[in-house]
Amino acid sequence: MLFSTDLLIFSPNDVDLNQSPFRRTIQADTYVLGAFNPGLTRLPNGNLLMMIRVAEALKQPIIGAQIHAIRWDAVRGYVLDSYPLVSVDAADPRKFQVLGHPYKVMALTSLSWLLPVELIPDGTRVVTVHYDKIIAPERSYQEYGVEDARITKIDDTYYMTTCSVSSERHSTTLYTSTDGLTYGLRGIILDHQNKDMVFFEGKIDGRFLALTRPLGDLYFATRPDSDYHSGPSINLASSPDGLHWKPSDDPLIRARKGSASTMKIGGGTQPILTDQGWLLLYHGVELRGLVGIYRTFWALLDAADPRNILHWEDRTPILEANLGLTEPLKDQIYLSDVVFTTGIIDAGDLYIVASGECDLACRITHIPKPILTLD
């Protein structure tokens, strides 16, 4: 699908690592593995704000017979932990599995922090990179990083959900802001391995609503004649205050047989209210290769009761990875066939959509409204 505006707006080459929080305590050489998966919102001045995940990695994680992981420590700051090479599986450049445990245990050769980048109102040019507003680990439950921001403005407050990664848990954490740029940590709001939590951009009957996506290593079989595959689903939850959440009793969007997203699905953009209902863009994954093929699909939910799906397009994607966009960065690509959409802005006759491209860079796409509208 061709769009009038479809570009990479920010890449690893645009990050100044002299401003990295690592510089405080780590002397090892690092590089930007990816600057991607940006949360997106509009600031009070009319400009856009992307909250970009910067995955900063060790240039040489393996030294001699040891492999090293980056970790944040409350006392020592950023540190390197050493593991014997013979005790790990290091097939993935982003992480390695520590063998000999009764469960699957991973460590990271990179650690993610969040970088606020301000754009002009149509999202096509960078105005300022706010290194003074970096969001980095500050609690033990973030020792392996802060990832994949989603931003939703409700009334006069910006709510930003993130994934916080640690040996304690893999949780969803909340930050809030009154200006869209300076955020304070409010703490954990969803516990272990509940990823892709996204607030709706508005309340229903005075309550917050959010998409969630619980993960696990075990799923039970659907009945043989079911329309759905077993596996992760996008669910609804509600809250009186944005901090305490009650999951809906029923799943919302599941991996449907015959679709192009049978391996994994998860929330993408913050659901926004349109004339036809709540519009959401989400990712679906087709089983192929190391991580699968990530594409962006869409759905419309009833304005008064989002449990009712009015339209669900899971066969023809809105966005797919665009090799032409990443051609100038081809020497830095370590994943292909991945687009991970993470933010949307209503801009009159079109939507401005922000995505992570190939876990490498940030993509801005202008999508005409009729494409995401029922006939």
TrEMBL record:
Protein family per UniProt: Belongs to the glycosyl hydrolase 130 family.
Keyword Amino-acid biosynthesis: no
Species this chain originates from: Larkinella humicola
Domain of life: Bacteria
InterPro entries noted in UniProt: Glyco_hydro_beta-prop_sf, Mannoside_phosphorylase
MF terms (GO), sorted A to Z: glycosyltransferase activity; hydrolase activity, acting on glycosyl bonds
Protein name: Glycosidase
Keywords, comma-separated and alphabetical: Glycosidase, Glycosyltransferase, Hydrolase, Transferase
